[in-house]
Amino acid sequence: TRIINTKKLLFYKPDKHILEKIDYMFENISKDLNSKKNLNGLMCHLNHVKLQVKKISPILTHNNINYVISYSSSNILSISLSILRKFFNHKVISYQYSFIKEPNPIMSTSADYMFIFSKYFIDKYSNFYSKPKKILISGYLYSSLIKKFKKDIKKYKNKFRLNNKFIISYFDENADDSNWSLSTIEEMKVKYKELAKFVLDNKDIIVIIKTQFLKNIPTIMFPDDMQIFKAVNSGRFIEFNHLSTKNIIKKKIYFKNLSFRNIIMPMTASLMSDITISEKYGATTSIETAILGKRNIFINDKKFKTNLDKYFKKNIEFSSLKHAL
User: Would you tell me the crossing angle of helices 76-83 and 40-62 to the nearest 10 degrees?
Assistant: First the structure.
């Protein structure tokens, strides 16, 4: 094993023949797409991919790289490394990191090896859009970290004064007003306010809010909502982030990158909780809670149906957060 000094990457000279082949390949793709209408956005994206492919090709030229681990098939770097297999001999390894309800192009991959949670997901990844060359069942990705996270629970319980309280963790899904979000900002506000009111009305309850992204932290999304701030100030409405909310706001981290994730693992919140609440359409946090032997319920205000519904007993799925509380 050899660790590459990334500073040296700046001085790697590209292989001119490889660059010519890359140009030729993308030129043929462009000719084909130019004959079709309304594909300007795709053409722009392909140009970004082409630049990235050329940019990172010298790394493969100057290093004997056999395997590349791709964490997301929709990431432009992952796409570029997959394309470069045409010119180099490396294999791409990918892995499932979240629940997937139906096959879709964003989550699909053509990796050489794909690790998935269980047999249930085979047809989700071997689909119309693309499929890995080999699918391997590995179980849930983060199961091996349970012992590590358990060590931190006592520290968090003391920090947040959780003893002798009933602890509920709420896991959100990304909320904004774009075409790519299933929850709007207003819908998220209603849910945060319901949780805040529940905390203020019940002195023996603590609610831990574990957001997926820093921009969705309640007091960042709704800085003028007094009910939410009152709940936070009670010490029983906890914004659980890897950085304090004050530092996030002070340094404006969420402005620098709107996709900046809250890297606290959901299972850390689950380990502290008596019960957790997830959105049904984002079932990864439900899986992560279940493998700990902890209770999880989910909210299905979007009326999602799956072929797993027959396994859900009463008091697992609720039509609204208000009903669940």
Answer: 60
Average pLDDT over residues 117-128: 93
pLDDT for position 6: 66
pTM summary value:
0.85
261-316 pLDDT, tens digit per residue, is 888 999 999 999 999 999 998 889 999 999 999 999 999 998 988 888 888 878 89
Residue 42 corresponds to which amino acid?
L
Q: What pLDDT is attached to residue 35?
A: 65
CB 137 within 8 A of CB 116: yes
Q: For the chain, what is the radius of gyration of the CA atoms?
A: 23
**3-state SS of the chain?**
CCCCCHHHHHHCCCCHHHHHHHHHHHHHHHHHHHCCCCCHHHHHHHHHHHHHHHHHHHHHHHCCCCEEEECCCCCHHHHHHHHHHHCCCCEEEEECCCCCCCCCCCCCCCCCEEEECCHHHHHHHCCCCCCCCEEEECCCCCHHHHHHHHCCHHHHHHHCCCCCCEEEEEECCCECCCCCCCECHHHHHHHHHHHHHHHHHCCCEEEEEECCEHHHCHHHHCCCCHHHHHHHHCCCEEECCCCCHHHHHHHCHHHHCCCCECCCCHHHHHHHCCEEEEECCCCHHHHHHHCCCCCEEEECCCCCCCCCHHHCCCCCEECCHHHHC
Report the distance separating Cα 40 and Cα 44, nearest Å: 6
**Residue with the larger pLDDT of the pair 260 and 17:** 17
Burial 221-239 (b: 16+ CB within 10 A, else e): bbeebebbbebbeeebbbb
**pLDDT band at 104; cut points 50, 70, 90:** confident
